[in-house]
Design brief:
The complex is a heterodimer of chains A (168) and B (99). Chain A is of the alpha+beta class and 168 residues long. Chain A is built from four helices and ten strands, in the order ββαβββαββαβββα. In chain A, the strands form two sheets. In chain A, strands 1-7-10-9-8 form a five-stranded antiparallel β-sheet. A five-stranded antiparallel β-sheet of chain A has the order 3-4-5-2-6, covered by helices on one side. Chain B has 99 residues and is mostly beta strands. In chain B, a hairpin with a 5-residue loop joins β5 and β6. Classes of the chains: A alpha+beta (168), B mainly beta (99). Chains A and B meet through β8 of A and β2 of B. Chain A: InterPro entries: SoxG, TrmE/GcvT-like.
Chain lengths: 168, 99
Amino acid sequence: MQVTVEELAPVARFSLRVRDKGVAAVGKALGLTLPGRIGERADRGDLAVLCLGPDEWLLTAPEEARAGIVADLAGIYARAPHSLTDISHREVGFRISGPAAATLLSMGCPRDLDRLAPGRGVRTLFDSASVILWRDGPDMFRMDVWRSFAPHVRSLLEIGQQELAAGL
Amino acid sequence: MLLIHCPYCDETLPEAEFAYAGEAHIARPADPMATSDEEWRDYLFIRTNARGPHYERWRHVHGCGRFFNALRDTVSDRFLMTYKAGVPRPDLPATEDAQ
């Protein structure tokens, strides 16, 4: 059972909170339509926007794009009040890929991962840590973990990899 | 593990993602200054402790983060319904199987 776990390079992450009339304006400033349903995702180039709650979105982008996003949204703040918080350093990203990726994640995640379609992402649990789980492809997951939980999650994933390799 | 339907995510998800948050539909007295000590004590501490269907609050803490209300049978631990916060208290479902 093949599965690889790798730590991803840092990216810019933002927590965006906006409601009602501001949603369309913020989407326009970012050059896309903010997804309306929880778990849906929208992409424009390297920018990915994931809907986490009724008024909450997560933005990820390359680090070079950070200043541009802040400036774009600051420009519309008067018209569309919102909260944009830089959380880039709060989280560490892991990529879990391979035919056994879902099996490995199911060791810590209580969700039914078969029902998480590729192209979607959700906030959920891994063991006791709150994580954001993106399904980039059928056998490709990305997990954003709070920095202080990362060593714990990493060691659990390593134990799981060893168990899978041993055929347990 | 219990499965709970989150009315915001519109998905039925494992209990581990949720947190219990006490009895629902407890309104803060509109004018605390005019409230007697006994009424304030009742507001803060006195709960129904129902045996059977119980209106209670839950939070989808490892998910959308929202508080919502649920009607749970405290005997069977079955969730009879869940609904968004702010919605008036619905009537009891007609049958035990209504979910």
